[in-house]
């Protein structure tokens, strides 16, 4: 028996509404099942239940067996002292609070019909469990689900941002710098870029922001890529400068073998990305504060419109000349950096500072960007759910990753709608 299906049954009141009574024979009328709680504590809060002639307002806890109350040690947990009703399938022991007060018990039947419908859904071998059924779901519900998924995604990312800020001793600027570096590496080189930023604090870069050459020396030196670079006059100069700066700041470079070049387009080589990061640090001041104030995606693209230093015009790696071409960040890369770092930080910073305008602006910028073109977005499109912006595509990625792949259909509004139609 699955307790989560009891939660579903109670939440949507899929049980006989007439003739309910406690184990002591008092009539029960469910006026409001309460708010579902996915964190620690009772399963539902602020429920309204009339027991006999008395209206009770408080928490509701649910178990398969009433003795599970004691198995989970709720009898010693003060958080369960305000439980007004214990809802179970089998009653084998009366629950008591830490104060010794008995909790009234309601026995409801296990939802066998729901079990059958739920199993058919989660055992589906389709791309998503409801692929063949989603066509009957109201479009307004699908749109509201997309809105909810995007907010959930940003909330999840905000937790990651908060952890990073904490690791940086409360410095939003340092945390943003580290995450921006990680985003510069995209998927292939996210880890070495992250380690590079950790090994080279922003305050060290800031001391040399007026010199693009010194910034390159610091970043390339700390990356470890200078160690095995083919020597030419520029490489020799960088090595000399880095040796001085390394000793000055007591720096330790990261392991160069972490960097990946294979199966990357030359424009995405970590050498080019590091050179562009150096130029961004050189051309911009107050990266965090400036990017928290941008109002639209066009401003972001202009902000990142920097060119790598002259050496990289005819190089992709050290010591090997190539066809002359200015090296810049492409707009698609800038949009990915925006999605992965700027938007989460803007939303999280707005939340932490009670600046609703920043939270709203983060959502607005997502809506201004075109949708991502990936397998998830294309497959949802084939089912008739079209992503019109990055707001939509990010929401669909979240839906697929955290609900469809984990078969959490009873927590998904779309899955709930399908299940309810079958009851």
Description:
The protein has 423 residues and is an alpha/beta fold. The protein is built from 17 helices and eight strands. The strands form two sheets. Strands 1, 2, 3, 4, 5 and 6 form a six-stranded mixed sheet that branches. The protein has a two-stranded antiparallel sheet with strand order 7-8. The radius of gyration is 28 Å and the shape is elongated. The protein starts with a helix and ends with a helix.
Summarize the structure.
With 423 residues, the chain is an alpha/beta fold. 48% of the residues lie in helices and 10% in strands.
Q: So what's the overall shape?
A: elongated
Overall radius of gyration: 28 Å
Q: Proportion of β residues?
A: 5-15%
Q: Which regions have little confidence, pLDDT < 50, spanning 5+ residues?
A: none
Structural class call reads alpha/beta
Largest sheet: 6 strands, mixed
The strand count comes to 8
Question: Element order, helices and strands?
Answer: HEEEEHEEHHHHHHHHHHEEHHHHH
Tally of helical runs: 17
Helical fraction equals 40-55%
- How confident overall, as mean pLDDT? 94
Determine the N-to-C terminus distance: 18 Å
